[in-house]
Specification:
The protein is an alpha/beta fold. It is 26% helix and 15% strand. The protein has a single domain, classed as TIM Barrel. It contains nine helices and twelve strands. It has a twelve-stranded mixed beta sheet, with helices on one face. The structure holds S-adenosylmethionine and iron/sulfur cluster. The site of iron/sulfur cluster has 11 residues, from loops.
């Protein structure tokens, strides 16, 4: 692994051994969630005894600053449910003010969106991804464990009202649950500026038979889209591993996130930091690198950057799902999806 002389750290950019550049950080600010999505936290959030607290506002600011110093331009706030944090707006405001950070995005389950989206916009959040696993309130309740479909839909309308030009909607399509809604989702985005993103169900350490029963290959969806006249777009820098499709008759777009596809990792443009301060180089199969001890004072910034850079040089070329590595060790609520 290449390590970096400390005097050169100030110039180091986030480029790995395979020449991939990382300008995008997914920053989890809490593991806590008030939903119980059956593929993520089926028993709800369970706080672990004697676990460290989530990163504080100052720790979050320092980690964001270090990534910005190394060329990161976009930070996504995620979780758990990030908007559950009482200091959520303060976090967003701090991060949007960091020099070099041009976009601060949010991934949310949308439960507070109708009420708070104006404040999110005012705090500088530039784009929103909201999860909607079903357009049928009963199925939404069945999947998420919570009866908030109407509130989430109102939140999306409200986001347009307060000036967001486009909203991204995430949905995990699963066999025998919501997969029959594929066409309904397409119709929904026909006249709405929504990028509908279908995320292929990923197997986590906490599910096995669930995955076998409900996993639906994204390839099946890609074939359907192509057969119906949707065209695959050239990836833009911000798409990352999503494959984006457009259709002349539709205002909305479709994004497919297919982690089990070959080459998924070639366009990887993201790093993750967990709510307890670990750097994750990949969603799959690694334990994370501790950063928290270097988030305690501003004087540690160069050491922090050196640790991040050195760790990045150990990032693998691709995940090993195809060679029998079963996938993510934990549920995605702990590293933000
Ligand atoms: N609570 C927020 C939300 O649901 O949007 C943010 C965190 S959540 C972990 C981020 C994304 O990960 C969501 O869109 C969710 O659908 C997705 N996700 C969680 N577990 C997943 C799994 N096992 N497979 C695929 N996507 C998953
Ligand atoms: Fe919560 Fe998001 Fe996980 Fe659903 S997917 S349980 S909303 S963290």
């Amino acid at each position: 692994m290449q390590s970096i002389p400390i005097k050169n750290v100030g110039d180091a950019r986030l480029i790995d051994a395979f020449q991939r550049t990382y300008y995008y950080l997914r920053l989890s600010i809490t593991d806590q969630c008030n939903f119980r999505c059956n593929y993520c936290l089926p028993n709800g959030y369970q706080p672990e005894a004697n676990q460290p607290h989530f990163l504080t506002l100052s720790e979050i600011t320092r980690v964001a600053q270090a990534f910005a110093n190394m060329g990161t331009e976009k930070i996504r706030l995620t979780g758990g449910e990030p908007t559950l944090r009482k200091d959520f707006l303060a976090i967003a405001e701090q991060i949007t003010q960091i020099e070099g950070i041009r976009q601060v995005a949010l991934t949310t389950n949308g439960y507070r969106m109708a009420k708070d989206v104006k404040a999110w916009k005012d705090s500088g959040i530039s784009s929103i991804n909201v999860s909607v696993d079903s357009l049928d309130p009963k199925m939404f309740h069945q999947i998420t464990g919570i009866n908030k479909f109407d509130e989430v839909m109102r939140g999306i309308e409200q986001a347009f009202e307060v000036g967001y030009q486009k909203v991204k909607v995430n949905s995990v399509l699963m066999k025998q649950l919501n997969d029959s809604e594929f066409n309904r989702f397409l119709t929904w985005v026909k006249n709405r500026p929504i990028q509908m993103r279908f995320i292929e169900l990923m197997q986590t350490g906490e599910m096995n038979s669930f995955f076998q029963r409900h996993h639906l290959s994204g390839k099946v969806l890609a074939d359907k889209l192509l057969a119906e006249g949707w065209e695959l777009q050239q990836n833009s820098l911000t798409d990352g591993p999503a494959k984006v499709f457009k259709h002349p008759d539709y205002m909305g777009e479709i994004g497919l996130i297919m982690p089990y596809e070959k080459n998924f990792c070639a366009s990887c443009n993201r790093l993750r930091v967990s709510a307890k301060g670990k750097l994750h180089l990949c969603l799959f199969g690694e334990e994370g690198i501790e950063l928290r001890d270097l988030l305690q004072s501003d004087e540690q910034q160069l050491l922090l950057q050196a640790r991040i850079f050195t760790a990045l040089q150990g990032k693998r070329e691709h995940h090993y799902l195809h060679q029998g590595d079963s996938g993510i060790r934990n549920h995605l609520a702990s590293i933000g999806g």
